[in-house]
Amino acid sequence: MYISKSSVILTTAASLASALNFAEYSNKEFDAVKRNLPDIEIIKPRQALCPAVWTQVATELSTTFLNTTDLLCNDDARAAIRAAFHDCASWNTSVTGGCDGSLILAPEELTRSENNGLQNIGPKLLALTQKYQAIDPSVTAADMIQFASSVAIVICPLGPRVQTFVGRNDSSTANIEGLLPDVNAPSADLITLFANKGITAAELIALVGAHSTSKQFHVNETQVGAPQDDTPGTWDVDFYADTTSKPTGVFVLASDASLAADPQTSATFQGFVGNQGKWNGAFTPAMTKLGLLGIAGGSTGMIDCTSVVPLPRVVPRSLVKSQPIMDRI
């Protein structure tokens, strides 16, 4: 009988060992079983649990982002989602920066025209960062921006849970200007712009669906507050149909219309029309990927806090559709 390492084997694979009657095995057979058990020296420690502070953050943000009148997500929620894009996407593979919190830590960034509309949410996210850093110094502005976006998405009815990591480093050095998409850019330019960030054309089309909850305030100041689909408080796929049908009251960005019509992306764009599950399934990994732009090693060494992001919400579509668009602005 093998005795010298039996205690180690039983420790490292207790569930399997308890199911075996080792007395029934010859030395040769037992050796074969032993070789298939993990060696104690190579077993990896369990990933650290999400710091408790993020549960508190999630609770506060859930209240902040909910419109209690109609149970839809509000302007702070849609701004938080946009902030996550802008902190990360002002980067490409040839520069430094990315998801580093500089959007709210470098005063210059929020003054840029490309970040118009984020001047209200920026200070709120910074204040939250400072509040919770006093409780847990591991909290960073970069993590707060991405975590807030994940909470905002699920507070919007039908929004999916995006895999959400913490562990980013902060920087007060402004990211390079001009690397965010222009609302009037042709589709070819947008596809190239995102390819240089490591985002594929298909991922871009999934990500642009976040305009489902968006409103415009600075592109055309004669239509301030105009939504980009007919249900701006809900995370649904109406955006994809509304971009081509252009119903009254919906503001369509020239860049979105170009992506919808481009032969490279039109099939993907149309494939999301009326298909909530397909879009959510494509959006969530693309958003997780975007939330790691500029971070060496990606999620390696980071902590997965998805479990403390609230569960997705469902509000009856009849409630959403019963309100005129302008009543939701």
TrEMBL record:
Binds 1 heme b (iron(II)-protoporphyrin IX) group per subunit. Heme b binds at H211. Residues 77-303 form the Plant heme peroxidase family profile domain. The active site is at H86 (proton acceptor). GO terms for molecular function: heme binding; metal ion binding; peroxidase activity. Residues 1-19 form the signal peptide. This is Peroxidase. It comes from Lachnellula occidentalis. The lineage of its organism: Eukaryota, Fungi, Dikarya, Ascomycota, Pezizomycotina.
